[in-house]
Amino acid sequence: MCAPPLAVSDEDRKELERLSRSVSEPVRVVRQARALLLAAAGTANEETARRVGVAPNTVRAWRRGFAGGGIGWLGTVAAGVGPPPPQGPAQ
Q1: Distance of CA 20 to the CA centre of its chain
Q2: Whole-prediction pTM value?
Q3: pLDDT digits (tens, 9 = 90+) for 15-73
Q4: Of 9, 48, 15, 8, nearest to 31 (Cα)?
Q5: In angstroms, what CA-CA distances link 13 with 1, 9, 50, 87, 88?
């Protein structure tokens, strides 16, 4: 079963399009923007994942994140993902 097209406002779509073409934004944000534009166009999660180079579950998580947090959510790293914070005395 395919997910329904992601609901994206005209304003958010313009920003996603800008971010998807950016050469100065982090790669994570560019990939998320591309994936969300494909999701808004009704592309299946598996096909979106293939085109963007991530796992289908990642696309699903990005869709949920955008649906819950809007454009400001892009680039957010989930808790517990990535390297641990540095330990030791603050400088």
Answers
A1: 10
A2: 0.84
A3: 999 999 999 999 999 999 999 999 999 999 999 999 999 999 999 999 999 999 999 99
A4: 48
A5: 25, 6, 21, 40, 43
Is the Cα torsion angle 41, 16, 30, 21 positive or negative in sign?
positive
Q: How far apart are CA 66 and CA 85, in angstroms?
A: 25
- Tokens for 9, please give them: 């406002």
Structure-token match 């009704």, residue found: 42
CB 9 within 8 A of CB 23: no
Whether the CA torsion 60, 6, 53, 71 is positive or negative: it is: negative
